[in-house]
Amino acid sequence: MSTRHDHLILDQFTRQAETFGVVQSHSDKDAMALLPRLLALSSQDEVLDVACGPGIVACELAPHVKRVVGVDFVPAMLGKARARAGGLGLTNLEWKQGDGGQLDFPAASFSRVITRYSFHHMLRPAETLAEMVRVTKPQGLIAVIDATPEAEKQQAYNNWERLRDSSHATALTRTELLATAEGLPLHLEAEHFYRLDCSLAGVLGSSFPEEGAGAVYAQQLADDVGRDTLSVAAYKRDGALWFGFPITIVVWRKL
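and the corresponding structure tokens:
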């Protein structure tokens, strides 16, 4: 990542550290329940969570496995992750500051490697996937979970999300996400698509857009009800605006 982009991520997620972990949609029970099954977790697995944020995924997986290591670029997020694990009484987790594009682990260190909601913040996500593959054991599983707008709506979606979060780079389409594995020793094991329903108020309440940008973000969503030019299927519920992030889970096996 560029120095400027590093700064954007550090700024946004230092501020979001106070709010990210308490947003209900980030811990959606149905979505979280998919992960142990898709990753075929066992008590012997050692898991790496790349861009772990406040430890939501890492803490969810920890009871199913031997060990989880969470890596994140933002110290404030790691502080929240440690507090979350401590509050849950989990003792098989470790937290390290680091960059997903240069993971500080030997090759073949983990049997499962995962990242969630991170690729759209990366300028070169394929490099991070290559690093994830490097640190995965042969026959281990690698999972990437992220928003994947429809191709014809991708530009509109990205422009809209940058209003809310200036560290948003590019949300890949499903085809582009799959293409990040080209040339890597990977076999596609599973795919799963779902919509992560969120309220506009909840999302904006946990974000830190620039002055005036939040209002534009809200207006664009309101204008998109019944049109879906943003690929988020905006709708109204009890007078409030809601929408669904288009989420794809991709699981590969390392050959």
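(Above: one complete record from the training split.) The beta strands are 46-50, 67-72, 93-97, 110-116, 136-147, 186-199, 235-237, 240-254.
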